[in-house]
Structures are given as structure tokens and as C-alpha cells.
Design goal:
single chain; mainly alpha; 12 helices; about 0% strand
Length: about 230
């Protein structure tokens, strides 16, 4: 994908199961076939799991509660997921992997680094911060220390892939002279840190002091690349 278009790519990627999960409980219309019913039931389980994990955390969530919220028998969950951990892992794959796929297209885009960073902000605001996906990330932040296998899985499936993609485009920016040194290429975490901060802040302090997250992240880009926005 050399002509990187966030809107077009996101429309294709997020037409998949990530949005199906959020809409699972609201579907109506023609009776689905057997495969369709199975997919709907799976998405309903994932939607219920997200609601329960978000409300109670990973440790306190019981599969009984997930089944009750999904409107199924507990035993039905085991037709789809081996245990609570595999359920959480599939939730990450279904909701976060499409976003990771977008980020992995970045190195193929022949665009200035500032433009790429601004488009990534748009993706973050629209597809993570403005959706229930931020709850998945918040769960990893809060539960990861107590459940290292979950943290390891998230690192492998999400973080490591994002870092590889960002390092590639940041190294190219250094070679082009868009960056004064290679600090960002060595530590791409610096580029995405405001997003993590915003998710933590929203869960703790938003009711006291709401953040304008878009402006926060643009101010961060000004500090990194200079105050003149790329056109």
C-alpha cells in the first residue's frame, strides 16, 4: 500500500469482526444460517467479555457472568474458548489487531514523518480512544502486572509489531533529515506515549479535568518535529 489512505484502509479493516463485536447484541433482520449464528454467538460472547472485564477486571470476572450477559449457557462458551485467558486473547485479536494492521502499513507510505504521525493520531482518536478498544488497553495496563502471560501475549501480538513498524518509518525519517537525531528511532515508545497517558488519565481523572486528547497529541508532535504542521 504505497498510497497510504487511513480512511480507506480503516473502512476495509474495521468492517471485519471488531465492529461486529460491538454490534452483536443489536443485530436483527433475516435469520442467519448456521455459520452466521455461530459467528454471532461468538461475537456476543466477546462483547459480553469486554463488558465484564471492563467492569470487574480480569481476575474478578467469571465465565458464568459472561455467559449470563451474552444470554447463553456457560457451557456454550467452552465450544468457542478453552478458558478465560483464551477468551481475553481472542478479544485482543478481534478488537486491536485491525489497528495494528493499519500501523504495519506505515513503512510502505512515502510520506513525511509528521504527516504519518498526524494520521496515526486520527486513527488513535477515532478507532481507539473514541471506542471500547481503549478499555482493552486499560485492562492490560491494570491487570498485566498480576497476569504476566496476558502482558506477554499483548506484547507479542500488539506492542512488538507496532514498534517494528514505527522504527522502520522513523529510521527513514532520520535518513531523510526530517529528524535531528535517531533518538525517536531508537525509542519509538516516545512517539506513542501520549496515547497511553491519555488512556490512563481518562480512567482516573477525566471527571475532574477532561483532556483534549487530540490537542495534547498535536502539542507532543510540535515538541518532536517543530511547531509548523505539515500540510
Amino acid at each position: 500500500m504505497t498510497d497510504w489512505s487511513v480512511n480507506e484502509f480503516m473502512a476495509n479493516m474495521l468492517a471485519k469482526r471488531g465492529r461486529g463485536i460491538a454490534a452483536a447484541a443489536k443485530r436483527s433482520g433475516a435469520r442467519p444460517n448456521r455459520a452466521g449464528r455461530r459467528n454471532e454467538r461468538r461475537d456476543a460472547i466477546l462483547a459480553a467479555a469486554l463488558a465484564q472485564f471492563s467492569a470487574r477486571g480480569f481476575s474478578a470476572t467469571r465465565l458464568d457472568d459472561v455467559a449470563r450477559r451474552a444470554g447463553i449457557a456457560k457451557g456454550t462458551i467452552y465450544l468457542y474458548f478453552r478458558d478465560k485467558e483464551s477468551l481475553f486473547q481472542e478479544l485482543v485479536r478481534a478488537m486491536i489487531s485491525p489497528i495494528v494492521g493499519v500501523v504495519e502499513t506505515v513503512p510502505s507510505a512515502d510520506l513525511p514523518m509528521r504527516v504519518v504521525a498526524e494520521r496515526l493520531i486520527d486513527v488513535f482518536i477515532r478507532e481507539i480512544y473514541g471506542t471500547r478498544r481503549k478499555d482493552v488497553i486499560r485492562l492490560i495496563i491494570t491487570e498485566g502486572p498480576r497476569f504476566p502471560k496476558l502482558a506477554e501475549f499483548y506484547y507479542r501480538e500488539v506492542i512488538s509489531r507496532v514498534l517494528v513498524a514505527l522504527r522502520a518509518v522513523l529510521r527513514r525519517a532520520v535518513e531523510r533529515g526530517e529528524l535531528a537525531d535517531d533518538a525517536l528511532a531508537r525509542y519509538p515508545q516516545l512517539l506513542i506515549s501520549p496515547g497511553v497517558f491519555a488512556i490512563i488519565w481518562s480512567g482516573l481523572f477525566d471527571r475532574f479535568a477532561p483532556l483534549d486528547v487530540r490537542q495534547l497529541m498535536r502539542a507532543h508532535l510540535d515538541l518532536l518535529f517543530g511547531a509548523v504542521s505539515a500540510k
